[in-house]
Design a protein that fits this description.
Layout lengths: L2 H14 L5 H7 L2 H20 L1 H13 L4 H16 L4 H19 L3 H11 L11 H10 L3 H26 L6
Helix pairs in contact: 3-6, 4-6, 5-6, 5-7, 5-9, 6-7, 7-9
Length: about 180
């Protein structure tokens, strides 16, 4: 079964068996995030329909296309990681996926592999506390400073970036078969 349907059924079951009240369920929803993602998804669609994704993809292809699909993956991931330090990962993914698809088509790379790289990179919000609400919560409670995130998050991001670049092509080839 699709994960979304299982999660929805689980949430409904929790309300039906009164593990949770409907009011508690509503309070648990991060409404700002729901509206942010709901606003960014149409932006991703609009980028595709207006040709903005194609223009941005053309710029990436001119910059990295000659170096091959792995360089394109690295470039897309780098841009995604940079954006996700200041924006929520879901919003960054909604903006970057159409660009990844267009870039993949232009250089003959597998667009789904590039999109998977973007999805993984959008979760690498470790360098600043701004990229994820949990980072901000931990910052306050733990007494951390901005530079603490940089000191720990930058090496972690570089390590994960390298792991994704090495492992992703093994499981999802960058060129169509």
């Amino acid at each position: 079964l699709p994960v979304a349907e299982v999660m929805l059924c689980g949430a409904l079951l929790m309300v039906l068996v009164r593990v949770l009240s409907m009011e508690q369920a509503y309070q648990a929803i991060e409404w700002r995030l729901v509206f942010l993602v709901a606003g960014m998804l149409p932006l991703g669609i609009a980028m595709t329909k207006t040709g903005a994704a194609a223009v941005l993809a053309d710029g990436l292809v001119k910059l990295l296309g000659a170096a091959g699909p792995l360089a394109m993956l690295a470039g897309l991931m780098m841009l995604t990681v940079l954006l996700s330090q200041a924006m929520k990962g879901a919003a960054v993914a909604a903006v970057m996926v159409p660009i990844a698809v267009q870039a993949g088509h232009r250089i003959g790379a597998e667009p789904r592999a590039l999109c998977l790289g973007v999805a993984l990179a959008s979760s690498m919000a470790f360098v600043t506390p701004l990229g994820h609400p949990v980072n901000i919560l931990v910052m306050g409670e733990g007494g951390y400073r901005f530079r603490d995130y940089l000191r720990v998050g930058l090496p972690l991001t570089v390590l994960l970036f390298a792991v994704v670049l090495l492992v992703l092509p093994l499981f999802w080839p960058l060129t169509p078969r």
